[in-house]
Amino acid sequence: MAVYNTSRFIDELLKSHESSEPSFVLRLYREHWQLNTGSKFLYNNQVASLLDDIRSRHIPVDFLKLFDATKVPFYEGCLIVELLDYRPSKAGEAELEQPEKSRIVLTPNDESRWSDICLLSQKSSVPWTDADTLELEARLLMATAPPLCLEPDVHLTRIVNATHRATTPPAPPSLKRKASAMNQEADEVEKSRRIKISQFMNPRLRPTVPT
User: Cα(211)–Cα(204) distance, rounded to whole angstroms?
Assistant: First the structure.
């Protein structure tokens, strides 16, 4: 049952690597965000898809090549991300001088595992066949997947599902507050425009001209 306790695994991972450097640092400001000490990105930038992956607590597949090229450290197959949030809790307040610091763990999923296999295949001096790729994928699943239950039991399944739901960390608030606010405002403008068009096309709503 321990393999289904996600929170326990994450807590133990963070505790065992408490003194280790994070895989990368994410700095969140009111108008922009930074990855480590690199370039500044707006919250509506295409690169901000990284924030969605972090919020879902999954390894970002689109950045795996970059992580591999820059030797980003992995811990037991996971990424440890340090969040430094300088954003104020209320609008109009100044940004925080001392950020709110936290660490979260990004775990692999089927898509990231397959991307890892593709990267290994590209780096190999000998081309891999489809059979080689499938065999490696099978070995990875055997090593990482929970044990297969060959005697299904309804009560045991309910216990496992309940344990998994109860121990899965909740998704943190959206990291793209600024972008969300901008999108909401744009949606309101578009909605208002459509209402005006529909009113114009409806003869019943047109003002009558006195004769």
Answer: 17
pTM score of the predicted model = 0.69
Contacts of 163-167 with CB under 8 Å at 24 or more apart are 163/1, 163/4, 163/5, 164/4, 164/6, 167/4, 167/5, 167/6, 167/7, 167/8
**What does 25-79 look like in DSSP terms, one character per residue?**
EEEE-SSEEEETTS-EEETTSGGGHHHHHHHTTB--GGGHHHHHHTT---BTTBE
User: Tell me: the pLDDT tens digits for 65-81?
Assistant: 999 999 999 999 899 99
DSSP 202: -
| Residue of 88, 24, 30 whose CA lies nearest to 54 | 24
148 DSSP 8-state letter: P
How many whole angstroms separate alpha carbon 35 and alpha carbon 39? 7
